[in-house]
Specification:
Blueprint (H helix, E strand, L loop, with lengths): L1 H24 L3 H27 L5 H22 L3 H5 L2 H14 L13 H7 L2 H5 L5 H4 L1 H26 L4 H16 L11 H27 L4 E2 L9 E2 L21
Antiparallel strand pairs: 1-2
Length: 265
Amino acid sequence: MASEAKPESGTSLATLRDRLRRLYHGRTPEAVRFQAAVVLVDIVIIAFFIATPLLQGTASFLWLDYAVAILVAADLLARLLASTDMVRLMRQPTSWVDLFILLTLLFPTALANLSFLRILRLWSLSRSGVLWRHLGGGRFLAWRDTTHAVVNLLTFLFVVTGFVYTFFFRQASGLVGYVDALYFTVATVTTTGFGDIVLPGVAGKLTSIVTMIIGISLFVRLAQAIFRPTKVLFPCPQCGLQRHEPDAVHCKACGHVLNIPDEGS
């Protein structure tokens, strides 16, 4: 009897993995609806992460925290089961980010000082194949790099805001302290430097220096993404070059004939 149960169990797991694979990577109407729901849930989770400093003192925070932990764990497990190469998936930085976020959700008290890093989920979402699979063609493709640059900048702003609030402004009341941290971060990243809010001590000066250097770099990256000549992502079948001019007929690296679809395709 035991030997008969094993194949059935294996078949059930294979059926589940096939079902998840079709939902996460398929293009059927059902898969599209599922993937849109996954993106929507991700956006709600990111909103919760941004609001975490303001919610930590409420009675319902732990319930919300563990509910989000269940969602993140279920999504990570489902993606693993849907993957054809689990080891490769777990080696990706986005998977490391999800695991770290899950740890901060499971141990919200012990890892409270690291909870500001949860906003990295926004960066993971911007790299998600689920997000771009159905927005990757036509006019959306031209804005992909710009969107990544904007998301990188927003992620950095919220990470620094959370860090500054956690280590410098937590003694202030929740909303006021968080707004002060956000105000300081934006003023520092833009090098405006009003000077009405400054971070005390050597640690504060070093934080300001790092914030300015990385912030300027991200602004430059955003400007490059917006103003450089528009190219499309279309891998050359011969040499694999990814970027080409929208009207290119031949690959500029190897001369292979290209067949780049126009925006209406």
